[in-house]
Fold Polyphosphate kinase-2-related domain-containing protein.
Amino acid sequence: MASQWIEAVTELTLGLARKLPGKYLVSDGRDFELKSVRPQDHGGLHKGHVEAWLDKRRAHLGALQERLAAEHRHSMLLVLQGMDGAGKDSLILNVMTGMNPQGTKVVSFKKPSDIELSHDYLWRVHMAIPSRGQVGVFNRSHYEDVLVARVHADTLDARGMKGDPTKREFWDHRLQDIRDFEAYLGRQGIHILKVMLHMSPECQQERLLRRLHRPDKRWKFDESDLAERQFWPAYQTAYEEAIRATATEHAPWLVVPSNKKWYSRLVVMEALIARLESLSPEPPPPSPEILENLGRLEAKIKASKILG
């Protein structure tokens, strides 16, 4: 009886979860302000109920991905951005774990290699776009080129580029390039959902300390992350500028409160499900020959023998 009551409460409370992405979705960024999203927000929900709901929704997400792969018409790209410690890796593990690895593609963008630097900055991104039927995830992305690169514009190697990286016009042009690039992808059947995991600097401090003190997480600790904390305001400005310039109906931003990882996972899960459901992917119908010969084929399968 108690388990039925808990399940009923979970369904009732988390039935509201489907509406959560709309609260944080930015599809027209002209007037967006980052301060409008509180990093500590958790929607009044409870961790236990949310985790029970996530287990159910993973199965549904996996079924949608299978239908997307079978239909082989569209692809889905999930772009994850956030300050170090925001929970990008754990979100991929917890949200994507119900998907078939054959139908997913996770790409992590690090510092550009010499070969990548010899091309335009979007070259490596275009090479990593998921193919039809796939769900792709960018763990950091082309937005690093208007975030980290912008905060540290004085160190950007701008050989061959037009404009001055220390001037606003340079970054306005680059943001327009990204917006145009994503519009092009949309016309090719590639559907984009961009996520900023928005946490507070206090939360980052706690997570960095936890990473340092836990032997199983210590390998992720990088002292350079501490140096980047001094640029926190500059990063917040860069994020705000990027969202304002590139949030569109086709490639919206989801600015998710991320002080509580379980809550950010819930919001991203529901947003991804909603985007895939909007595509209504369906497997192709069987050939007429199979439909006309179901009985004969069934009998043939039953009569088949294994030799040896």
Summary: The longest helix spans residues 47-71. DSSP finds 14 helices and six strands in the chain.
